[in-house]
Specification:
Blueprint lengths: L7 E5 L10 E6 L2 E6 L8 E3 L1 H12 L5
Antiparallel strand pairs: 1-2, 2-3, 3-4
Length: 65
């Protein structure tokens, strides 16, 4: 994914706790960006649309349990 786009529309995960384990997801191009809510200055990682959809499918089907 080209990083010529800036991530925007950040949202905190509804699964994040109040104090710890907080992540935010934003849009970048036609994919997603993920960052640590507590330390936004560290930057973010990106996933294209296909990678992000594969991740969401894995979460929804409990493949990480």
């Amino acid at each position: 994914m080209t990083l010529s786009h800036k991530a925007s529309a950040w949202r905190k995960s509804s699964y994040s706790s109040q104090e710890t384990n907080c992540v935010e997801v934003g849009r970048i191009g036609d994919g997603a960006a993920v960052r640590d809510t507590k330390d936004r200055g560290l930057g973010y990682f990106t996933a294209d649309r296909q990678q992000w959809q594969a991740f969401l499918d894995a979460v929804k089907t409990d493949r990480f349990e």
